[in-house]
Amino acid sequence: MSSTDQHDEAHSGALGSRLNWLRAAVLGANDGIVSTAGLVVGVAGATDSRSALLTAGLAGLLAGSMSMAAGEYVSVSTQRDSEKAALAQERRELKESPEAELAELTGLLADRGLSEEVAREAALQLTERDALRAHASVELGIDPDELTNPWHAAWASFLAFTAGALLPLLAIVLPPAAVRLYVTVGSVLAALALTGWGSARLGSAPAGRAIWRNVGGGAVAMGVTYAAGVLLGAVGV
Questions:
Q1: Of 207, 178, 180, which Cα lies nearest the Cα of 193?
Q2: Is pLDDT of 3 > 50?
Q3: How is the chain split among helix, strand and coil, in percent rounded to 5?
Q4: Cβ neighbours of residue 157 under 8 Å, at least 6 residues apart?
Q5: Which pLDDT does position 114 carry in this prediction?
Q6: What is the pLDDT of residue 8?
């Protein structure tokens, strides 16, 4: 195996983690675009007041970004607590039943294709080096030094949603009233095409389907909210 291949394997976990964060950022931005665009386009169907559009857009941006951040914080905190509990249990088992844990590690390595002799020798060496790390990695799929961070997740979601939401907000309040709707719809659909392409690339999936799915969903959302806004505006609600 070349040194380049060894380097790539050694960093495959870190690369996967970075890709997961990047994918979450793309999806968070996509949520910000669609939800805020639907909100401001709906309001635009009822009124052409720039102040009303700005107020609704800002309210939607803040509510959405805070909701995303809070939800991500709670979700990742739960995951982190589960990881800590699993590591604590593994630490207890290693202390109370070291031979049983060694046999378990040997079996896990053998299940991955190693012969019984090689698996036993590998398990012994891994245990002597760092038993907890070995079991955490092989048995639990956890790196004890790289537990998920709820604050990082919360801030990433907050910033991604905010970045996405700013596009339709600025597109609806900055242009003249006569063209603001066209500018908003056009810029939102273009941004959704970009995020659809980005999410497909990160997931190694066909880009065309992801783009059309993203653009179609955003177009339907804006169409429905605009129609609702026109209807509510017409009846004076």
A1: 207
A2: no
A3: 85, 0, 15
A4: 24, 28, 65, 68, 69, 71, 72
A5: 82
A6: 43
Taking a C-beta distance cutoff of 8 angstroms, is the pair 41, 226 a contact?
yes
The more confident residue out of 147 and 58 is 58
Report the C-alpha gap between 198 and 133 in whole angstroms. 35
Query: Residue 52: what pLDDT?
Result: 93
Q: Which two tokens stand for residue 214?
A: 């993203």
Task: Answer for the pair 164, 30: CB distance below 8 angstroms, yes or no.
Answer: yes
CB burial of 176-196 (b: ≥16 within 10 Å; e: otherwise) equals eeeebbebbbebbbebbbbbb
Predicted confidence band at 21 (pLDDT cuts at 50, 70, 90)?
A: low
Q: How far apart are CA 137 and CA 127, in angstroms?
A: 12
| Model confidence pLDDT, tens digit, residues 169-194 | 999 999 998 999 999 999 999 999 99
What is the rounded distance in angstroms from the CA atom of residue 127 to the CA atom of residue 104?
12
CA distance 13 to 200: 20
pLDDT at 12 > cutoff 70 = no
Residue with tokens 């990082």: 152
Rg value, the chain, Cα: 25
Pair 105, 127: CB distance under 8 Å: yes
Q: Which two tokens stand for residue 108?
A: 């896990």
Cα distance between the two ends of the chain = 70
Question: What phi and psi values does residue 176 have, to the nearest 5 degrees?
Answer: -60, 155
Contact 188, 171 (CB under 8 A): yes
- Amino acid identity of 17? S
The pLDDT score that the predictor gives to residue 160 is 92
